Known about the structure:
heterodimer
Amino acid sequence: MISLVGVVAFILLAPVIGGLIAGIDRKITAHMQGRVGPPILQPFYDVGKLFEKEKTVANDTQRFYAISYFIFMIFTGALFFAGGDILLVIFALTLAQIFLVLGAYSANSPYSHIGAERELIQIMAYEPMIIIAAVGMYVVTKSFNIGTIASYPQPLVLFLPGIFAGFIYILTIKLRKSPFDISTSHHAHQEIVKGVTTEFSGPTLGLIEVTHWYETVFLLGFVYLFFAFSPLIGIIAVILVYLLELLIDNASARVKWQLVMKSSWVIAALVGGVNLAVLYYLGVG
Amino acid sequence: MLLVRKEPERNWIVKLSALGIGAVTILLLVTLGDKGTLYYSFAAESTGLLMFFIEMVIAVFILYLGIKYKNYLVVGLTLLQSVMMIYFEVVYAHTIDVKYSLFIDQFSIIMALIIGIIGSLICVYALSYMKDFHEHHKELPDRRNIFFCIMFAFLSAMFGLVFSNNLLWVLFFWEITTLCSFLLIGYTKTEEATKNAFTALWMNMLGGVAFVVAILYLATQAGGIMGLGEVLTSGKAIVLIPVVLIGFAGLTKAAQLPFSSWLVGAMVAPTPVSALLHSSTMVKAGVYILVRLAPIFQGTFSGYVLAFIGALTFLLASGIAISQSNAKRVLAYSTIANLGLIVACAGIGTYEAIWAAILLIIFHAISKSLLFLSVGMVEHRIESRDIEDMNGLIVRMPRIAAMMVIGIAGMFLAPFGMLISKWAAIQAFIDAPYGFVFVIILAFGSALTLFFWAKWMGRILVVTPKQENLETRIDSNIWIALISLAGLTAITCFIFPLISSTLIEPFLLQNYGNVVGLSQDNIIIMIMMLFMIVLLPISILMPRRKHRHLTPYMGGMTTNADMSYYGAIGLKRDMKLSNYYINSWFGEVKLQTLGIYLCTGLIGIMFVTATYVGAII
Lengths: 285, 617
């Protein structure tokens, strides 16, 4: 069941693809804002520079959390692309995320502390929807195995339109895009400084940046699953979804965490409940 | 034990008994683990009379206390129950013949292991804890001889409960656990303790009355079926009403909404009592009986309503836990929530759901007792049980903090036990008809549990500037209990496939004709994750070049290494961080009131539908 090719390909290629996506992201964002923007390879330069910086920490445990975050995020993505169990992938993702939060807590700094609390609120906001998405895929394909889900002959999105829309909604949270970038943001207008990552610096911060690339690739892989019946349409859909997220990012201002939490839950309960109920009555489930 | 007032003697008796109980339960596993269900007959008539006699003595005792403390609800319930029992004993008792009063199967063995091992460890811990407790609370009378006596009586009653086939015997042990918990909660005899003990008593007696009604119904309407095994094989229609009544008793004992307040109130008792109530006894008796009766609930409307009560309790109690800053209350609400999940599984009643339920019972017992015992120790050292006061515990009490982190991780993170169980529950729910409703509730409830556990874990792991180590002078008994439980938390995750294949799967095969398990691939992946989790912290200890330490960013404030800063008028202020509790959304009063109304309504529906089905057919 487990494909080693998927594992190796993810570990080697994901940072390259993720970094490129980040570069293209910045370029398009710049154009949307009427700027020229940095070169596409800028994220790689940035991370390279971070790794050359002096190693400074707020305490000795921080590096451990950052490394664990990195390793478990790779684990999550590798398990996903190897065609493992989708629920296990989600649990591994949560574990990785918790390590980042603990790292932020451990720093004993007000900014990183508030970032950690908000990161937890984000996790609480998006997690039900991800589980419902996995369950929706199971109801249609009768399997939690990603390999089986991906080889389902019909477009999953047709069975799960509500769940797909709900997933796109929380994808904005997961990609740390406005209006839901409440715990840390790529934009420079944050009143909580850099949130969860405030107290990470130098190589440790570089590691977190690379982890984020891995995460992006994994999340887009999840989007692909909804369209996996045809690889071409799948890739086009993934690109369109990412462009949509960029547009949302640049067209909206950040909202309060209360709204993030409430809206994600209401949407998850509504679309998840209605979509699963319809599937059930149609006899698909 | 009652007579021994000297400490060294008591230490020895308790330790030897604990060791004996642990050893016997393991022996039980080794000798009978693969034998399937065995029935034993026993001199039922004389024992029955003896039990009846003891029950009456207990009733008189409770009546006396009820009158003394002017709690007329308890008096009324006791009278009602006694009258019914006497009526039963006089009119029906001689007509009923249960061939086998005792039995043993894999599920009983699992329960016995939980009671025997965890219960005994808690008793060992209690030796040192109670000594400390009385040094801290000089104003309270030292009644430790009674305390330990009741603790062991409690464990014995639990053993009796899980090995009894005769429902009259189950009822007898059921009432003993109610009495023991009442006495233990009221141990300190303060006003609050007495009040909460009576709350626990009347709620559980309500369940007891329902149990007696069930027995009367079985005796009069169902032809005197009185063995647990016979009830399960006698067809749903005949026994649905009594099973729902016993299920109601299970709900009260498992502290489901609307009866959750007794378990939260029970927190006034000394910590070992809370640990015992929450992990291996009392509430586990409630879910034990529900899981036993699950085949009857399966596929019935009443079963779904029961599952819905459990699921709602899971969701609401998890929400309430977010708003609590008192560590013991957080633990209490988390227990109620997890029991809700077990009840939901039992109500669904499919073989997959029961697999999940038994896993939940095992893992919850271990992690929860570890957490309670650690919190108890922390409370004695920092003189507070508030989570905010546990800030930076990893610096002040590194070893205890590590135990707590293991316990918390065991409660919500992959690849630890509770998460495996939740995973199993998702699988079970989605395969059951209308199960998607429960999956959605579970998804939201899990997100809530994640929030309150993670913020607690974060608070413990804050690395504060150097502070005094408070961990010295902790007794070896405490370390024995804590280290064993922490070890068990990790080891059960490694060997759970073994537990599943040797104990749970044969039980399912026998009762449902179907088995379930995780696929080989997933088990390997989980074990890989477990290894990574175990190995990564060790990497911290590796010698390497020291990194330069900087103080955290404070927005340009002039800070010192101890994170204090100079405020507006030149005063030195300490920085203080605290967690979100989101009281406006998850306030205790709000959610609990909601839960009480909803779940009381649901219990009503459960009875009505059961009566409808039972009366029509």
